[in-house]
Amino acid sequence: MILFGTIVNGLAIIIGALIGTKLPRLSKGMSETVMKAIALAVLLLGITMAMEGTEFLLVIFSLALGAVLGERMNLEGKLNSFGYWLETKVKKEGEGSVAEGFIAATLLFVVGAMAIIGALDSGFRQDHSVLLTKAVLDGFTSVIFASTLGIGVLFSAIPVMLYQGTIALAAVWIVRFIPEELLDIIISEMTAVGGLMIIGIGLNLLGVPKTRIANLLPAIPLVVLFVLVQTWLF
Q: In terms of residue numbers, what domain contains 215?
């Protein structure tokens, strides 16, 4: 089922939010310990994915050039600015904690490499491991958010499912126009690039000096382009 990972992710947010509204605020120490444990699992997932690639030079070039393009476009900065703008609008208009919780949680769950990589993985090869890992992260985070920001966090599941579901379905449509042998190579190298980015997310969660993962997103289309060029030339 193509949308399985997306649906589980949405349900995890809903369940986590419902639990969060019933619980007292979790201690900082408990939250940090659980998040660190999840971060270790994210690292393991990223390493497993990264090992699937065979064209190491293409992966390096894609990440290096993707980082240059992402930094030039300041993708992470733009996403953060958009989030700050939304938060400012909510505060100015005084829409209350429901809107504030909805926007804050939506930005956290939707904006990021893991949502894109996981949805592409679900669409291209029906592998939901990234989105299922993200579901665990989002579910626990929604407990924390809902305990402080209220029931609005629950409604963030809607844009999350729409966003990730659209990407997954688009990936399925693209697959139909690519020969099977070439598709296997593209998926392997995309998985490797995505895996290295997932490792970066895990390191960020562990508190290692922050990597601007969103600025690496151009590496995903670039590795596809490089694979196509290599196939055409050789």
A: 4-233
Hey, is 182 helix, strand or coil? helix
Q: How far apart are CA 161 and CA 110, in angstroms?
A: 9
User: Cα 64 to chain center, whole Å?
Assistant: 20
Cβ contact 2:123 at 8 Å: yes
When divided into structural domains, the chain yields a total of: 1
pTM beyond 0.90: no
DSSP 7-67: HHHHHHHHHHHHHHHHSPPPPHHHHHHHHHHHHHHHHHHHHHHHTT---HHHHHHHHHHHH
CA dist 134 and 119 (Å) reads 11
User: Can you give the pLDDT of all 234 residues of the chain as single tens digits?
Assistant: 889 999 999 999 999 999 988 877 667 777 778 778 878 887 888 898 888 888 889 999 999 999 999 999 988 787 667 656 655 665 554 444 566 667 667 767 876 667 878 888 888 878 898 899 999 989 988 888 788 777 888 888 988 999 899 989 988 888 788 787 887 888 888 888 888 988 887 888 788 877 888 788 899 889 989 998 988 877
